[in-house]
Design brief:
By secondary structure, the protein is of the alpha+beta class. The chain has helices at about 85-170, 175-180, 185-200; strands spanning about 1-5, 10-20, 25-35, 40, 50-55, 65-70.
């Protein structure tokens, strides 16, 4: 059983317990009580040996000092914990937290190393991306140049074909050429002369 009150201002109150195996459990979550208006009463049922911590907290209001009056009554159905056992419980709890601290510090160092490794990997990948982007631009330009050159060569091929065609006609004997042209209609003949003049 517990009871408490404060003068003028409210206060935070919570209850924790250090068990026999050194673990700490929260029996009652800390919250604010308007103990300046009325006395706060309560009771808790505890199972197993341990050390109970009644915690009054004024950290939310440093500027306002609190005057606290409290009464605590413990009814035990099991033999009470001796001072030696209480000291052992506290030492065991401290040892457990020291071990937890070492474990967290080791974990922190490992994560810091991992973060540095990831930063190096990111920098390397960024460099590779920049190089690939440069190569991409070069190949895109090479493709455009090849397409332009292809069009130019295609035009040259077309001109050579026309020239070869014209030269083939000119290599014929005049009698043979006149005989062939004699089979052409007037429009076809005019078109043929126009092509020869344009390509000559």
């Amino acid at each position: 059983h517990y009871a408490f009150s404060t003068r003028d201002y409210d206060v935070n109150f919570g209850v924790q317990m250090i068990c026999a195996d050194g673990t700490m459990i929260e029996l009652m979550e800390a919250r604010r009580y308007e103990s300046q208006k009325h006395q706060v009463l309560g009771q808790l049922t505890l199972v197993g040996p341990g050390m109970v911590l009644l915690l009054w907290d004024n950290s939310f209001s440093w500027l306002n000092a609190k005057q606290l009056a409290y009464h605590v009554e413990l009814k035990q159905e099991t033999p009470p914990v001796s001072d030696v056992e209480k000291t052992q419980l506290a030492l065991r709890a401290r040892l457990e937290r020291d071990q937890a601290l070492l474990q967290r510090e080791s974990e922190f160092d490992g994560l810091e190393t991992q973060m540095q490794t990831e930063e190096q990997t990111l920098a390397f990948l960024q460099h590779q991306i920049e190089e690939l982007q440069g190569q991409l631009r070069q190949h895109e330009q090479a493709k455009e140049d090849a397409a332009t050159q292809k069009d130019r060569v295609g035009e040259q091929i077309e001109e050579l074909c026309w020239e070869l065609n014209a030269l083939s006609w000119r290599c014929l004997e005049k009698s043979t050429l006149h005989r062939i042209l004699g089979f052409l209609e007037e429009k076809e003949l005019a078109a043929w002369y126009g092509i020869c003049i344009a390509r000559s």
